[in-house]
User: Fold these one by one.
Assistant:
Number 1:
Amino acid sequence: MIEAIELCKQFERSVKKGRRTVKEAFLAVDHVSLQAYPGEIIGILGPNGAGKTTLLRMLGMLMTPTGGEVRLTNGEIVIENETAKKAAIGYLSGNTKLYPRFSIREYLRFLGELYGLDRGQIEERTAEISRVLDMDAFLDNRIEKLSTGQTQRASIARCLMADPQIYILDEPTLGLDILSADAIIHFMREQKEHGKTVLYSTHYLEEAQFLCDRVYMICDGRIVAQGTPQELLAQTGTGSLREAFHSIYGRQIGTNTGEEKTAAQIHVGTDKGPKGGASE
């Protein structure tokens, strides 16, 4: 299990006050607590600038929190060793860099050697990863020649090579064609079936509705709603997670500003689903 306990991250921003520009501290993540268990897919939902990526980077041990704690457990045992924590997590973001002149197979061999796997283990793991992500057709192509969707699958393959217990994926299907997005969705479902934990952020709310066991909705760095998609629909009296999102955010922004926003005034992110598919 991975757990966030009162997690905070403070940054500074420039603010205009009269003729002067001053530095002002603000919390991009504001006392967030959440839990993700083995065999679950957890969705982190929110508009641009809500704090999703900052939260995921702290959960992935890539950013030091200003306050709070990230706790990993193996059964009843709390994992204390920092190296062991990082080894338990596979993290993917849109900024992940791969070696462009390697083929995917060469890159996975390189990673396997870094992880101390022998040749037989590397070949077996490579074949399994290629099957899971449907990469056989381009496994021996140079990474620099791959399409966007193929490159994203190669990035996920990097996470898979170490066989982590927890996957943290920041908008893994963003901008992908239907086949590439479906391959990644299939991968997440398969990892869940294997008892792995998957946390991922997305702007595709229809995708989250049928894929996630539970979701956390974030606004201004704070959790404003959580539960199963069905629970959130029941709480808001709506028929889809998109409608529930607008209902919750409309009330939240109204609480902050004194004026409730309509659904059309709340910017969720891109309006289109995976390329070639229906909109969200």
Number 2:
Amino acid sequence: MLALLLSGCQWQEKPLDPLERIRESGVLRVGTLNNQLSYYIGADGPTGLDYELAQRFAKELGVKLEMQTMFTLSGLFPALKNGDVDIVAAGLTVTPQRLQGFHPAPAYYYASQVVVYKKGKRRPRDLEELANTERSLAVVASSSHERQLEEIKKKYPNLTWQSIKETDIDDLLRKVANGELDYTVADSVDVALLQRTHPELAVALELTEDEPISWFVKDSNNDSLYALLIEFFGQIKQTGELAQLEEKYFGHVEQFDYVDTRAFLRALDDKLPKWQGLFKKYANEFDWRLIAALAYQESHWNPQAVSPTGVRGMMMLTNPTAKSVGVTDRLNPEQSIRGGTEYLRKMVARVPDSIDGHEKVWFALASYNIGFGHMMDARRLTKAQHGNPDTWADVKQRLPLLQQRKYYTQTRYGYARGTEAVNYVEGIRRYYQSIIGFEQTHSYDHDSDDVTIIDGLQTITVPDELKQTPSAAINTVNSASQVTATSAAAPVSTSK
């Protein structure tokens, strides 16, 4: 009888709370969507804003990270509710419906909802025109965009749209760009990112103010996991880590030049294949796509380029710089690419180690353009103004001040064209991200051989040549938590 009673007590043992389960299993399961902002497997391995944040959180917990990608948005919250994942991290807007049974973590960025159309096509001027148009409007089913249209319909009852389940917002945006769909609704950040590869996309209307984007956890009797998330986001905001990640993923999207982007995309098809082998040959620790972006910024991949100021060649080297890196013929494309890469390498080596690895290259590129001394002046000015001299986001705000007498008279190296240096670096960053986006769209697909079924989930096996660190301009070793990438179905892009 006593044995039976003990057995009964054990049978009714209290289930583990979410945080206890994570620590006991040694795995943090994160539900996400596969896209260039949240999570994807790029040429250098797993990357994405939500992926990097999840990596940091898993490291805080001392557990491994398992990224589970869902086929569509509609699969995320059921998986969280059923306990198949511990957290949903997919760049999702906080909506009243998503507060029913779930807790949002602190917002890590903000985005507005916008109506998108194709440049050159009919643009709806206001909501009334949108509601009475006969043109096609489609959104992802169960998304925050559909919820917003439902609210608008209360005031404009003629508003109609198609709600599509088996799709994602990137797919709808591409259909708009290709002329297959007249309008869709998307988050402003997603539009800005996709414009790098689809410059035809344009914003017609803004439907909302900036809205918070958050992670979500399941509501439970024990909110210890939720409390840790609040502490985690508060900490990385205070230390500046969150700002650095935002700068890494969003910093290059502030400016958009339609004509330049169109010309660059043509060059990706017409010119890049000819020089890609040389960029890869001499990149070494750098991402070859960064070297390609630098070369395009310098010469538009023209090996015979010559400037009135005396710089020339693919990497537009001055004569003294060319001599310092062993280049004897600046118009020889191979010599120029090798020499330009070597000069950048020297600039990176001079950048202080207090600057985070993935940001060092932006400081080095600023030095490449404006000179190392002026870059250091901007850092000192940043510190004097109580900014962080080790983050590009803060320093790039001070570089233009080097053109103002009020500031450059207080520096060691005097006047400098700081605005030009900022535009130079940000241009390279935009070209770099465009090459990555172009490759994703045209080249990299998971082969069926890379996908296996484990416990009912499709698991993406990263090829050996991709088992590196997250995509970065400089490839460095990362000792963060181990990662397993799993998918509830074939991975696609995000829907908000």
